[in-house]
Design goal:
Helix 1 runs antiparallel to helix 2 and helix 1 packs across helix 4. Strands 3-2-1-4-5-6 form a 6-stranded parallel sheet. By secondary structure, the protein is of the alpha/beta class. The chain contains 10 helices and 6 strands, in the order E-H-H-H-H-H-E-H-E-H-H-E-H-E-E-H. The chain has 2 domains: 152 residues, HAD superfamily/HAD-like (Rossmann fold, 3-Layer(aba) Sandwich); 67 residues. It is 42% helix and 12% strand. The longest helix is centred in the N-terminal third of the chain and has 16 residues. The model has no long low-confidence stretch (mean pLDDT 95).
């Protein structure tokens, strides 16, 4: 895919684990949870470290139920649900991946830019606000705002972006991280697709379904910048 082939195209990004590292959001959320639960910084730190070590070992399921059991907090279903709400509603401490801001600066002068991202609201908007990148994008489509059934691999978010920007699918490029769902719909819609494959990503190892493999794989922001910047 020559660089010149993408001039005047619409470059669309996934948000989580593409523009920023999703593990940073997880850690930020764990800190918010433990601060909510604890009456002392020491106790908060101990619980957060336990959650983080558990996550790094590959166990992220039922994190708050496991936390309650391990520390004998006695949380019932209502208590666990409250923690989920705290996690989703916290203002995250996250930053753009190194080099991503410079790439967005370059692209905005020659291309329209967009985001198509799954995830619960208002958490996705809080992430966008924390990153401070709304200024770069001509359209931001949070699929949750269309309907839960419109999460990827549904094509609805991608179609909505094309309608919003009044652009043809053939002019669009999608950059994501998760081969299990990110590229099925844009491939079917004849978009170009690029997987940004980086160390530490949470979902990049998942297998792609039929028709879901990205057209290209890049392994660094520098390589992505060289390709499309």
């Amino acid at each position: 895919m020559p660089k010149t082939a993408l001039r005047n195209h619409v470059i669309v990004f996934d948000l989580d684990d593409t523009l920023y590292a999703e593990r940073d959001y997880v850690l930020s959320g764990y800190r918010a949870i433990c601060e909510h639960l604890s009456d002392t910084p020491a106790r908060s730190g101990e619980r957060c470290q336990w959650l983080w070590d558990r996550f790094l070992s590959g166990r992220s399921d039922n994190a708050f139920g496991a936390l309650s059991s391990h520390f004998e907090l006695g949380l019932n279903t209502t208590g666990i649900t409250k923690l989920v709400t705290v996690y989703r509603d916290h203002r995250p401490a996250i930053t753009l991946r190194e080099g991503m801001g410079a790439l967005l600066d370059k692209l905005r002068s020659t291309c329209k830019l967009g985001i198509v991202s799954d995830g619960f609201l208002p958490a996705q908007q809080f992430k966008l606000d924390a990153l401070g990148i709304s200024k770069y994008f001509d359209a931001v489509i949070f699929t949750e705002s269309i309907g839960r059934e419109c999460w990827k691999p549904s094509p609805a978010g991608f179609q909505t972006l094309c309608e919003t920007l009044k652009t043809d699918p053939e002019a669009c490029v999608y950059i994501g991280d998760n081969p299990s769902k990110d590229f099925v719909a844009p491939n079917a819609l004849k978009w170009r697709t690029i997987q940004l494959l980086l160390d530490g990503q949470i979902h990049s190892h998942k297998p792609a379904p039929p028709g879901g493999q990205a057209g290209l794989i890049v392994r660094s922001i520098d390589e992505l910048t060289e390709m499309i910047g």
